[in-house]
């Protein structure tokens, strides 16, 4: 801990114990919007290679020009550079995987590989084959919270089964199945999903120092990835002596939904400023809008709450009552359609998927509030399918429908909102709506230069796109004036 404190001091950070939260990361100077508070390479990480048709390179997570390791047939590389960079660790992993028969190798999931790499990396550091530092050593993993006493019996059995497989593969008598199971529990609470610049998941990594950072549903910082490097950037002015907070979950949802997700995945109840308002009028109203039902009067924008007898829902603005059975009937239709909706997409039949999702959307418009999360998610699915089919104009119309909901459910500076403006701007520019594209891309830049940083390739490309769109808009305007 002392070594870590000294290392963090150079980054103007310190670790303190907070009652009820444990270790927490604090600033020792002011940080400003877009500034990197801390960055960290993964102690161990793996690509998401569950799907046989979408393999990724173990080094850079790309999906192009891949070749399988000729010995273990489990790991993939895009070229010699990535293969060499991973060789010290993969040499040991390849050896233990190669001992397995073919069927057992197929059962080696990314989670199993992550655990294997954890112990193999520890071995390499113990033997000083690869260096260890104050911010890169196995003791930091040991210090992570496992919550073993809080997990369910079902989870415990699952971890034990996975630990048994890891123990079988490694064949190291000095480590126990109990110890491995505890580390699986640590993964569940502390590992992070590695995403690309557009927040699409690529893999999973363990970042022990970043894992010290606690959660808030109203965070002052954001975790993004540049390749496999985790970077925590300030979303706002973070004064000296402030705790650094990120969000562990998707925050678009009611307080109940957020609390449920945190309890199930991370085994704690959030007490952030947003969650502390639970049960207050504003919180009840917002929850009913995001996840509740709409008023039967189409001109009314009110929200509904259950009546005291539980038989109906009443609009809190105009007083109109909506029968519970009517709501139940529409909800059942939506559920039945939703069960069928994902099948066409998995087969690549995006037109059929659009047809089903459009039917769901029509029912949801009747049932849910205009700012419903469910309605937003359905429109997102339609948008993605339309883009797969290159139906750009229809895709733009749906992207514009989602923007008001994004503006409501996310803070003004949030990567999800910035990326939605980015998508909207790209579509507008492609379709020749240049002036609108400049507006959307400018909004995207204003957000993403803070969340992603101005020197990242993604934001650099976005800035070039914006300048080209501005030049085109200016040319069109001058042509009209002539």
Automatic annotation (TrEMBL):
Keyword presence, Zinc = yes
Q: Which residues form the MYND-type domain?
A: 57-94
Domain of life assignment: Eukaryota
Question: Which positions, given as ranges, span the membrane?
Answer: none
Q: Which organism is it from?
A: Cicer arietinum
Which residue intervals define the domain SET in the entry?
A: 11-249
> Which SMART domains would you find in this protein's record?
SET
Matches recorded under SUPFAM superfamilies: SET domain, TPR-like
Name the chain's protein: Histone-lysine N-methyltransferase ASHR1 isoform X1
Q: Which GO terms describe its molecular function?
A: zinc ion binding
Gene Ontology CC: nucleus
Query: Which Pfam families does the entry link to?
Result: SET, zf-MYND
What InterPro entries does UniProt report for this protein, alphabetically?
H3K4_H4K5_MeTrfase, SET_dom, SET_dom_sf, TPR-like_helical_dom_sf, Znf_MYND
Print the keywords alphabetically. Metal-binding, Zinc, Zinc-finger
